[in-house]
Amino acid sequence: MTDFDSDPSPSGDFDVAPVRLTVDLAALSDNWREMQRRSGRARTAAVVKADAYGLGIEDCGTAFYEAGARDFFVAVAQEGVTLRTYAPDARIYVLSGIWPGQEQMFFENDLVPVLASEEQLAFWMSVVSEHGDHPCALQVDTGFNRLGLSFEDALALAGDVSRPAGFSPVLVLSHLHSGDNPASPLNRQQLELFQQVSAAFEGIESSLSASAGIFLGPEYHFDLTRPGIALYGGESVGGMMPLKPVVKAEARVIQVRDAAAGGTVSYGATHQLSRESRLAIVSAGYADGYLRSLSGSGVPIRTGGSSGAFGFIAGHRVPVIGRVTMDLTIFDVTDVPASDIRTGDYIELFGPNMPLDDVARAAGTIGYELLTGLGLRYERRYIYPE
User: Which residues are reported to carry the modification N6-(pyridoxal phosphate)lysine (predicted)?
Assistant: First the structure.
């Protein structure tokens, strides 16, 4: 079981931080091992882009590396430079490819550009013609209409005997756009196109599946899988229980105040109290990535009848009331015994008691956005594997 209170000696700063994050690296490692198991005979990479989904590329990258990951994916080259220190002999793929002027950064840090356009491909051909062999990967678009060579151009490249001798792709990859919906027939369409691409690049490893695709079965695994959100405890397939929770976000209670029935709460007076109430004002707001759309009232998403977010404190789920503001959020704690909550306590914004994706749904978004939007003010504590 994940135990977010297992560290016996959190720092003094952590004890008094306005907002704080606990990241369970043991759970993170276990989630990677579980995705490795589900990937069958395929190797399993770790996707650590966006600062490891907001949780810290240094600590998360180290945890994945020590768990056994030797393939990593980042979004931009600078992330790869940072990761190289913590994954010394891993293969690090840069999903946005390479641009003129970045050659030395890639060579010196042994980064693998994922060539995602005809322009990048032409530039890379000139680079290897001048500097010699350096590994690269090819991204092929099989229906996403995002990055990648077209299906036709990829097949033509596979048969092009005039390629420079130093042009040595080590991976060809594509990306499913509807993997989170296992019933979508578009998954099969993309699979069949990618099977043709993989066959055309015989002898070169292939990769199609991120987190959601792994759950579609062995046909989708190829040589290398690329889990991301599942590693961090988020949902990758709608309605499927995620793996172990990895992160707990908390905010400190600044004040507990009594408020009279009929009074209003927060900007715009959009919430009117129907009873004598106790309110907990906590030090987190949209500047901390606790989105304004999580408000209990006064935002467009609430007009559809969906409820706002909840927090968790003293064994109770408590609702957000009124609008979330830049630095503060107000929770209704009337139903929490007065002796169980006081100034200085912490309320869980999301974590083991408030699942990340439940909170995201209340905001009309996905867990990815909550994690990657975490603000700079969080004091962080990491729980390391024993």
Answer: 49
